[in-house]
Amino acid sequence: MFERKMPLFTLFGFKVSIDITWFVLVVLITWSLAKGVFPHYFTGFSNTTYWWMGAAGALGLFISIIFHEFCHSLVARKFDLPMKGITLFIFGGVAEMDKEPENAKSEFFMAIAGPISSVVLAGIFFLFYVAGKAVNWPGPVNAVLVYLGWLNIILAVFNMVPAFPLDGGRVLRSILWYAKGDLRWATKISSRLGAAFGLFLMILGVINFIGGNFIGGLWYFLIGMFIKSASQMSYRQLLVKNALMGEPISRFMADEAVIVPSSIAVSDLVEDYFYKYHYKMFPVTDNGTLKGCVTTKQIKELSKEQWATTKVSDIAQPCSEENAISPKADSINALSLMNSTGNSRLMVVEENNLLGVISLKDMLKFMALKLDLEAGE
Q1: Which domain holds residue 187?
Q2: How many domains does the chain contain in total?
Q3: Which of 69, 289, 300, 310 has a CA that sits 20 to 30 A from residue 221's CA?
Q4: Residue 314 sits in a domain of what CATH number?
Q5: pLDDT of residue 200
Q6: Are the beta carbons of 136 and 200 closer than 8 angstroms?
Q7: What is the pTM of this model?
Q8: What is the rounded distance in angstroms from the CA atom of residue 54 to the CA atom of residue 179?
Q9: In a 10 Å sphere around its CB, with 0-12 CB exposed, 13-18 middle and 19+ buried, how is residue 155 labelled?
């Protein structure tokens, strides 16, 4: 999902990263607070003070979202759900899970943890505001504290809207899942509500835009578009998971894989293999022993003048968790690996022996056929 993220720090074993789109949000939030919100509600401060207040408000938003997502992650860990980490992006933050919750109970508690954490954090900010008023803290400090208190209340309320993939949508899905015991049906209902809510926000954005509220209208429209897209994608991902669940790797494996000898030149590799078979990855062998694979990525790292003087053995990647998979692995794991690495083909390897190759194209064809045949179920 996030291809342009930068790592920030690790806390409690969770890696926190920032997608570059987050910087757009920081600038917009700081500007809107400094030039709009704070001057409107808290008068009498200098222009410089308002900018410092805007920066502090943006920092408080950063802390609030991190705290919200950490609570999701900690509860997920308690239910043995592996977490990739936390990423901040233009629409807030997300705790990235390697897999969906196993049951309705874990889904419910993981989802509800976020809004509860925002309410708790709001209470903390309001307590500091009351204390600051009592001891006469500077007005700008108190203004930022009360803003952050209300901000977290708004975050909690917004996240509890029963529209998947918002926290409220996940809570709704968990309740429907528990009531009927059907995750697919529960996801379908909550995702449709999510798409409808996203469409509502998009229409609200257009209305605000026409009414002269350009910035507010743009945000409503973009957030609505994101929620609508994410809700529909979540349902499609579940359908894919159901289609592949229990399917053996062997169903997609090409037994007679095209093998590349490690001794040939890259120029011959390009001409006799890449241009002939149109694959982006080939297994590499040395006297019958698997040495790894070679991809178009390694080729592009060379200049064309180097092709004739460079051997395949010089650029081949050894077998690793990124390009090889066990025949005992689940097909879902293979698809997840392809998605995370960007590889469209994987070697099926057992004890350093090449058993075959699986491709994303073959898996997608199978899923499309299965979904078409079982659409009425």
Answers
A1: 5-244
A2: 2
A3: 69
A4: 3.10.580.10
A5: 94
A6: no
A7: 0.71
A8: 46
A9: buried
Sign of CA dihedral 306, 308, 311, 315: positive
- Structure tokens that stand for 118 in this block: 């925002």
Does residue 194 share a domain with residue 65? yes
Strands in 83-89's sheet, in edge-to-edge order, are: 5-11, 14-19, 83-89, 92-97
CB within 8 Å of 92: residues ≥ 6 apart: 65
In our burial notation (b when 16+ CB lie closer than 10 A, e otherwise), range 310-321 reads bebeebbbebee
- Are 232 and 191 spatial neighbours (Cβ–Cβ below 8 Å)? yes
Q: Which residue has the tokens 């899942």?
A: 177
Residue segments in the chain with a per-residue pLDDT below the cut of 50:
1-2, 377
**208 and 280 co-located in one domain:** no
* pLDDT score, position 375: 57
User: What is the structure's pLDDT at 90?
Assistant: 62
pLDDT tens digit string along 236-250? 777 777 777 777 787
Contacts of 18 (CB under 8 A, 6+ apart): 5, 6, 8, 87, 88, 89
Query: Other CB atoms closer than 10 Å to residue 340's CB: what's the count?
Result: 12
